[in-house]
Amino acid sequence: MESAVQSGQAVVRVLEQLKAQGFKPDIALAHIGWGEVSYFKEVYPEVPLLNYCEFFYHGRGSDAGFDPEFPITRDDKLRIRTQNAPLLLSLSAMDYGISPTPWQRSLFLRNIKKGLRFCMRAWIPQGSRRTRMPFLRCRMGEWCGLVKSW
Prior knowledge:
By secondary structure, the protein is an alpha/beta fold. It has six helices and six strands; from the N terminus they run αβαβααβααβββ. The chain has helices at residues 2-20, 40-43, 74-82, 85-92, 102-106, 110-113; strands spanning 28-31, 49-52, 96-99, 116-118, 135-137, 143-145. The chain has a four-stranded parallel beta sheet with strand order 1-2-3-4. A hairpin with a 5-residue loop joins strand 5 (135-137) and strand 6.
């Protein structure tokens, strides 16, 4: 957790320098995993934040506790669950979220999951100067609408 907070603080320092130079992004894209996006809204509260929501940890059924050859202890389960703390901080700043697969989306808490859209290999068109991006184009030809998260 401390490392994630420090990463977020470092990003804030850089964002404040950029803002002082007149930089204002139309939209921000960020991975939620390491804390960098946790405090983005402290510097740019009006900029839409699109989070890439790759994983939410569980003590069983995802990346731990599935193999009887490698049992996990109660403390392992608690440690694994605690790994979500920086993710929750990043999610609280999120305006929109995408998850790369339906299974990965299913790992998130119910109230967060309803705001995430599955969008395989999503992208925003390069060179776009629009201040609002109402849609992401999905590789498979479907349009995935961006949805407010909370």
